[in-house]
Design goal:
WD40/YVTN_repeat-like_dom_sf; repeat; WDR55/POC1; about 35% strand; WD40_repeat_dom_sf; Methylamine Dehydrogenase, Chain H; single chain; four-stranded antiparallel β-sheet; WD repeat-containing protein 55 homolog
C-alpha cells in the first residue's frame, strides 16, 4: 500500500523557469508546520490495518478545503504559481486494501475454525484422559478386591444357584431353562459352558450333589433333571415329577444315587438314579415343603428332615419309607433348615425372622429360639459358616450373620437394596457366599473369610448388631469413621 508523502523541505522544491516572487522563509516554515500537523492527525494506521473498515472517503488530510480538492481532483487545480502538496490515490492500492480486508476476513474465519478444531481436540483429549483415569481406578479397585465381581446374565433372570463343592465354579439356573456355569476369581468371572434348553420353563431349583459329579435341577413345569457336571450331558430326566399345578419347592441330596424333592402340596418324593424312577412318596402335611436336609439317626442311618409352612419339622426314615417324627408346630412357617455343631443341632429359619434350634434326635419340640433384630423380616435361606455362625438371607434385602451357642447377632454381611434375598450359597472353601433374588439377573459375591478367626466376645462388646456392617458389606460404620478422626 502506498502511503501519502510527507511535505518536502523547501530546499528541494522544484522552481519553474519563470520568475516568481520571493518566498518569505517564515511563511514557508509556517506552511510546512501546518501541513505536517494536519497530516499527522489525519491517518490512523493501526485502525486501518486492524479493522479494515475505513475507505478512502474516511481519510481527511486537512481541514483546508483546498487540500480536500487536491485529494480528490489530483493536480487539476494546482498551478505553477503555487506550491502545494499533491497526493495521488492509486486505485490498485485501494483494490489491494479491499483484498487485504477479504483476506483478513478469511483469516479470521480460518482462525475461528482452527480454534473450534482445537477445542474439539482438547475435548477429545480430555475424554481420553478421563477414560484412562477411570480405567486406572477400575484396575486399582480390581487389584484390591477380595471377592469376585458381580455376575450378570443378559436377557434372563436367575432361578437357582449352587457352588461346586470342590472347584471354583458356580452354576446358575435361568428363567429360559438354561444352566450356565462360570469359573470365578477375584479378577474376573470366566464363562465355562451353557447347557441349553435343559428345561422348557424357568428353573426353580439348582444344586450340586456332595461330590460335585451331578447337577440337579427342577423347573416350573415340575420336571426334574440330573446332569453330568463334566460333560453337561443329561443323565436322567423325570418328567412331571410332581402333580400338575404344584411346584417343586425343595431339594436334598441323600447320597450319590438318591435324592428327594418336595412340593407346594406337602408331597415328598424320593428318587433313585439307578432305578430311573421314584423310590417312594409321602404326604404328611397340606402345606409347602420349604426346605429339606439329610441327617443320620442314632443308628447312623439316613433320615430326611423337612421344614414346612405349617410350622412343623418332619423326619422321614429313608430305609423304612415312613415319617418317624413330626414336631409341634411353631407360630410361623419354617422356611429353611441346616445342621450345626457337628450335626448335633438342627437350626430352622422362620417367617418372622426368628431362628429356632432342635437337638439332634429330639425333634418333638424346639429347645431354643433367638429373635431377629429386623422385625417381620422373614428368613428365606440359611447357610452355616462355622460350627457356631450362621448367615440368614432375609426378605428385606439384608444378609445377616448370627452366632449361636451362645446366641448373639454379629451384624450385616451384605445388602440387596431392599430386594428380597431369595438364594444363598457358600463356596467350597467357605471364604465366599453368593446371593441373588428371584427377580434379578445379577449374583453378588461376599468375602466372609474373616469369620475363620472371629472373636465373638471382643466383637460383641463394641457394636450395635442391629446396624453394624461387617467387613464383607463394604459399608463403613459410623463408629469406624469417627474412630479415624481421633
Amino acid at each position: 500500500m502506498c502511503l501519502p508523502e510527507v511535505q518536502k523541505p523547501t530546499e528541494h522544491l522544484i522552481i519553474s523557469d519563470e520568475e516568481v516572487e520571493p518566498v518569505d522563509q517564515n511563511d514557508v516554515i509556517q506552511e510546512i508546520s501546518d501541513d505536517e500537523s494536519s497530516s499527522d492527525s489525519s491517518i490512523d494506521l493501526n485502525s486501518w490495518n486492524s479493522d479494515g473498515e475505513n475507505s478512502d472517503d474516511d481519510i481527511s488530510m486537512s481541514d483546508d478545503s483546498n487540500n480536500e480538492d487536491n485529494l480528490y481532483n489530483g493536480q487539476e487545480n494546482s498551478t505553477d504559481d503555487e506550491v502545494q502538496e499533491v497526493i495521488y490515490v492509486d486505485d490498485s492500492d485501494t483494490n489491494d486494501d479491499e483484498d487485504d480486508d477479504e483476506n483478513d476476513d478469511d483469516d479470521d474465519d480460518e482462525e475461528e475454525e482452527e480454534e473450534e478444531e482445537d477445542n474439539e481436540n482438547d475435548d477429545e483429549e480430555q475424554e481420553e484422559v478421563d477414560e484412562v483415569v477411570d480405567a486406572f481406578i477400575r484396575a486399582s479397585s480390581e487389584r484390591n478386591r477380595n471377592h469376585p465381581p458381580n455376575l450378570s446374565i443378559d436377557d434372563s433372570l436367575i432361578g437357582g444357584l449352587s457352588f461346586h463343592p470342590k472347584l471354583n465354579v458356580i452354576a446358575l439356573g435361568l428363567s429360559n431353562g438354561d444352566i450356565t456355569m462360570y469359573k470365578y476369581s477375584n479378577a474376573k468371572n470366566r464363562h465355562l459352558r451353557t447347557n441349553d434348553n435343559v428345561h422348557l420353563k424357568k428353573i426353580m431349583l439348582l444344586e450340586f450333589n456332595d461330590t460335585g459329579d451331578y447337577l440337579y435341577s427342577a423347573c416350573r413345569d415340575n420336571n426334574v433333571s440330573v446332569s453330568d457336571t463334566e460333560t453337561g450331558k443329561m443323565k436322567v430326566y423325570f418328567e412331571k415329577a410332581h402333580s400338575f399345578g404344584s411346584f417343586v419347592t425343595s431339594f436334598s441330596s441323600i447320597d450319590e444315587n438318591i435324592f428327594a424333592t418336595g412340593d407346594e402340596d406337602g408331597v415328598i418324593n424320593v428318587w433313585d438314579i439307578r432305578a430311573n424312577g421314584c423310590k417312594f412318596s409321602l404326604k404328611k402335611t397340606e402345606d409347602s415343603i420349604n426346605s429339606m436336609i439329610a441327617v443320620n439317626n442314632s443308628n447312623n442311618q439316613p433320615t430326611l428332615a423337612c421344614a414346612s409352612s405349617d410350622g412343623t419339622l418332619s423326619i422321614i426314615d429313608i430305609s423304612s419309607k415312613k415319617m418317624v417324627i413330626q414336631s409341634e408346630p411353631y407360630k410361623s412357617l419354617l422356611t429353611s433348615c441346616v445342621t450345626m455343631k457337628q450335626k448335633t443341632k438342627l437350626v430352622c429359619g422362620t417367617g418372622v425372622g426368628s431362628l429356632i434350634t432342635f437337638n439332634a434326635g429330639d425333634y418333638n419340640m424346639f429347645n431354643d429360639e433367638f429373635p431377629c433384630v429386623d422385625k417381620n423380616a422373614a428368613v428365606n435361606r440359611l447357610v452355616p459358616v462355622t460350627e457356631n455362625i450362621v448367615i440368614s438371607a432375609l426378605d428385606n434385602g439384608k444378609i445377616r450373620a448370627t452366632n449361636l451357642f451362645p446366641n448373639c447377632h454379629l451384624g450385616i454381611v451384605g445388602h440387596h437394596q431392599e430386594m428380597s434375598v431369595d438364594l444363598l450359597d457358600i463356596s467350597n472353601n467357605g471364604h465366599l457366599i453368593a446371593s441373588t433374588s428371584y427377580f434379578s439377573n445379577t449374583v453378588k459375591f461376599w468375602n466372609i473369610e474373616f469369620f475363620e478367626n472371629f472373636d465373638v466376645k471382643k466383637h460383641f462388646k463394641k457394636i450395635d448388631p442391629k446396624e453394624f456392617n461387617l467387613p464383607s458389606s463394604n459399608v463403613v460404620n459410623a463408629t469406624d469413621f469417627f474412630s479415624g478422626l481421633q
